[in-house]
DNA sequence: TCTGGGGTCCTCCGCCTG
DNA sequence: TCTGCAGGCGGAGGACCC
């Protein structure tokens, strides 16, 4: 199927570092390379797996699985807590090396991002050589391996980068996007999560090709609204998104899951005030103020509530944010009392802080 | 299985206003 | 003055991603 939404000159690469957190740990301690390694929370507590190395994945350990379950599946695994500061440092080195080969990149996380390849390659076939140069540059600078997908759109490049991990390089030729995606499980498409996948499966749609072939009526019945059209486009390999080279935060948040559910109001208020202080510091560092403050509550049954309020004028005052967060907490607890497993605060509607200068008359 | 933390985006509903 | 309607906005919740 040809893709009219994509210009023939568009060549996008998606780079994904293989089992990044675990790989960084293995760099420092090479003996970990041959044993199952899980980076994440406390296996005795409520943490989840952030990354597992390929040895641990052989035992069925996966990202986002609870650490307790990972321990059951692989009792002899080594469990490490994540060291984000170190991962950020290594990530910086990686992206500096990538930019030596491809100057224009969009980082979408510490361990992944898109590369604008048409600047450095005349066609998709030439882009393969550039991709190999990127992989060599990353390996040379850090010792890490990465997987690459190259295609005419972001969605196809991203799916392609995941097809031959670790260390793979998959090129999808222009015009072959839909055929490449068609036999794959709908779940590999970015945007299809557990809920959408379940709805599609209930309608007998398991492969991207079946989703791509749905007419408007059938699509509306399964996945109504914008989301349905977006996901069908993606299943067809259509994706108008270009590289975004800079973006500003829409919101900033802090939250914490307690080791044991908490019902003590003073303790909950203290947590919220502490979060408000940290959020206020981040706002001040970014010279920003926030107009909306939201409080998030999660009950032991995992049901989640948020309550928010919007101010006429933005604030970066920790006491004010903390006070609003506590008031919202009380409102939510009045509606549904009970112990909580998590509380959080989000500030949004961020604006640039205006410095007021008062002039003596 | 028993589910983190920090984000973004979308949808729906109710209220207010012209 | 009342009613109906459309649009904007705030609030809430859901789904998803890394």
Keywords for this entry:
about 25% strand, Alpha-Beta Plaits, alpha+beta, MutS, DNA mismatch repair protein, domain I, 5-stranded mixed sheet, 4 domains, about 350 residues, DNA-binding, DNA polymerase, domain 1, 4-stranded antiparallel sheet
Helices and strands in order:
Elements: E1 12-17, H1 20-28, E2 37-40, E3 49-52, H2 54-57, H3 67-73, E4 78-80, H4 84-101, E5 105-107, E6 112-116, H5 124-142, E7 146-151, H6 154-161, E8 169-171, H7 177-181, H8 194-202, H9 208-212, H10 216-222, H11 225-235, E9 251-262, H12 265-285, E10 288-298, E11 304-315, H13 318-335, E12 340-352
Parallel strand pairs: 2-4, 7-8
Antiparallel strand pairs: 1-6, 1-7, 2-3, 5-6, 9-12, 10-11, 10-12
Helix pairs in contact: 4-5, 10-11, 12-13
This protein binds a DNA duplex (18 and 18 nucleotides) through residues 40-41, 46-48, 50, 63-66, 68-69, 72-73, 108-112, 190-196, 225-227, 249-257, 292, 294, 302, 304-310, 342, 344, 346.
């Amino acid at each position: 199927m040809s893709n009219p939404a994509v210009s023939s000159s568009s060549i996008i690469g998606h780079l994904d570092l293989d089992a990044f957190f675990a790989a960084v740990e293995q760099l420092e301690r090479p003996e970990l390379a041959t044993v199952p390694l899980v980076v994440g929370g406390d296996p005795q507590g409520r943490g989840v797996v952030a990354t597992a190395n390929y040895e641990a994945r052989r035992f069925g350990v996966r990202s986002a699985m609870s650490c307790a379950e990972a321990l059951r599946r692989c009792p002899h695994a080594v469990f490490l807590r994540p060291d984000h500061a170190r991962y950020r440092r290594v990530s910086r080195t990686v992206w500096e090396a990538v930019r030596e080969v491809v100057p224009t990149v969009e980082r979408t996380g510490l361990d992944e991002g898109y590369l604008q390849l048409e600047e450095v390659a005349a066609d998709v076939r030439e882009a393969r050589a550039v991709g190999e140069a990127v992989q060599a540059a990353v390996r040379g600078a850090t010792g890490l391996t990465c997987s690459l997908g190259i295609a005419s759109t972001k969605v196809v490049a991203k799916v392609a980068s995941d097809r031959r991990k670790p260390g793979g390089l998959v090129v999808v030729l222009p015009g072959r996007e839909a055929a490449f995606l068609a036999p794959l499980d709908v779940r590999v498409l970015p945007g299809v999560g557990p809920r959408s996948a379940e709805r599609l499966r209930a309608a007998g749609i398991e492969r991207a090709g079946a989703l791509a072939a749905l007419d408007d009526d059938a699509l509306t019945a399964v996945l109504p609204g914008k989301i349905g059209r977006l996901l069908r486009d993606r299943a067809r390999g259509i994706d108008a998104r270009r590289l975004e080279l800079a973006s500003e935060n829409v919101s900033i948040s802090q939250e914490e899951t307690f080791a044991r559910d908490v019902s003590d109001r003073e303790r909950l208020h203290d947590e919220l005030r502490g979060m408000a202080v940290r959020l206020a510091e981040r706002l001040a560092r970014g010279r920003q103020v926030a107009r909306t403050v939201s409080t998030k509550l999660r009950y032991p049954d995992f049901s989640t509530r948020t309550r928010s309020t919007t101010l006429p004028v933005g604030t970066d005052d920790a006491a004010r944010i903390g006070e609003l967060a506590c008031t919202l907490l009380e409102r939510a607890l009045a509606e549904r009392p009970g112990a909580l497993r998590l509380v959080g605060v989000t500030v949004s509607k961020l604006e640039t802080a205006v410095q007021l200068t008062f002039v003596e008359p």
